[in-house]
From TrEMBL:
Summary of subunit composition and partner proteins: Homodimer.
The UniProt record lists the keyword Ligase: yes
Taxonomic source organism: Paenibacillus sp. SYP-B3998
Pfam family of the protein (one): Pantoate_ligase
Binding site for ATP: 31-38, 148-151, 177, 185-188
A single Gene Ontology CC term: cytosol
Misc: The reaction proceeds by a bi uni uni bi ping pong mechanism.
Gene behind this protein: panC
Protein location: Cytoplasm
Record-given protein name: Pantothenate synthetase
Length: 288
């Protein structure tokens, strides 16, 4: 496994691989502090791609002024162990000044999709994501890029950007990895106190309840699902709900009619939520 810090070295390495191989390049962009969720993306990339490239970059552009950029957990040594175990070929770890040597005057902004959910709660967040992912796609030039459905809105935004800008990369969405108790794995889970971590189980439980409800009823409304999920989350005293939404996926359009198993059933819809426990904002979702 090779660890690369500079854009020039990365480009040279990818060029040389392309010259000598006709296998695909798979790419997994992350902010590091890797856990099994990230490892599952790396394993998928290892299965599908000839060369597996992992990036670790805590991207300042996607954090708001009062968010946790400075405090975001970092542990490169441990990350390299996870990467090695997953069979990664190249780890790209640029410094902020390598990615942004001068102030940016270009911004990649996906409209529409980003006006809801985390886009509404975190203004500018998806501009930062789309801009850095676009830069990374230009640097790595992957055939496939692997993204977790933990961040389902991010997957939709990146897919839209790739379609709109004809970026020649296949976006591969990967399932959410959870702790055995249901808590969706996240680098930010380390912020949780023992109590908060216990109460955060209401998130995955509420989605499970919604799933059971959907399976038990032939017709229901998005409002009913939203109420059911909201009510269960509110049973945790430490939970402060940012949003609970039921929308079509991946368009993230509101669902006008009741949802039923008949032919007017949307192909797919998402129950998405963001909830704060103390200072920690957690997201989770279920796509049905
Ligand atoms: P992050 O380091 O949080 O920016 O995440 C990097 C990638 O890992 C994103 O595509 C995330 O969606 C994905 N990811 C994070 N947590 C999980 C999880 N629990 N299950 C699956 N993918 C995840």
């Amino acid at each position: 496994m090779e660890v690369i810090y500079s854009i020039n070295d990365l480009r040279a390495r990818i060029r040389s691989y392309r010259r000598n191989n006709d296998q695909s390049v798979g790419f997994v962009p992350t902010m590091g502090f890797l856990h099994e969720g990230h490892a599952s993306l790396l394993n998928e990339a290892r299965q599908q791609s000839g060369l597996v490239v992992l990036s670790i970059f805590v991207n300042p552009l996607q954090f708001g002024p009062n968010e946790d950029f400075e405090q975001y957990p970092r542990n490169t040594e441990q990350d390299l162990q996870v990467a090695e175990a997953a069979g990664v070929d190249i780890v790209f770890i640029p410094e902020v000044k390598e990615m942004y040597p001068v102030p940016m005057h270009t911004n990649v902004s996906v409209t529409g999709l980003t006006s809801r959910l985390c886009g509404a709660s975190r203004p500018g967040h998806f501009d930062g994501v789309a801009t850095v992912v676009s830069k990374l796609f230009h640097l790595v030039q992957p055939d496939q890029a692997f993204f977790g459905l933990k961040d389902a809105q991010q997957v939709a935004v990146i897919q839209q950007m790739v379609n709109d800008l004809n970026i020649p990369v296949e976006i591969i969405p990967c399932p959410i990895l959870r702790e055995p108790n249901g808590l969706a794995m996240s680098s930010r889970n380390v912020y949780l106190s023992v109590d908060e971590r216990k109460q955060a189980l209401v998130l995955s439980q509420s989605l499970e309840k919604a799933k059971d409800f959907v399976q038990a009823n032939s017709s229901y409304t998005s409002v009913e699902l939203k109420e059911l999920v909201t009510e269960h989350i509110a049973s945790a005293p430490l939970a402060e709900i940012d949003y609970v939404e039921v929308l079509a996926y991946p368009t993230l359009e509101p669902l006008e009619n009741s949802i039923s198993r008949s032919s007017d059933h949307p192909t797919s819809f998402i129950i998405a939520l963001a909830v704060k426990f103390g200072k920690t904002r957690l997201i989770d979702n279920l796509i049905l």
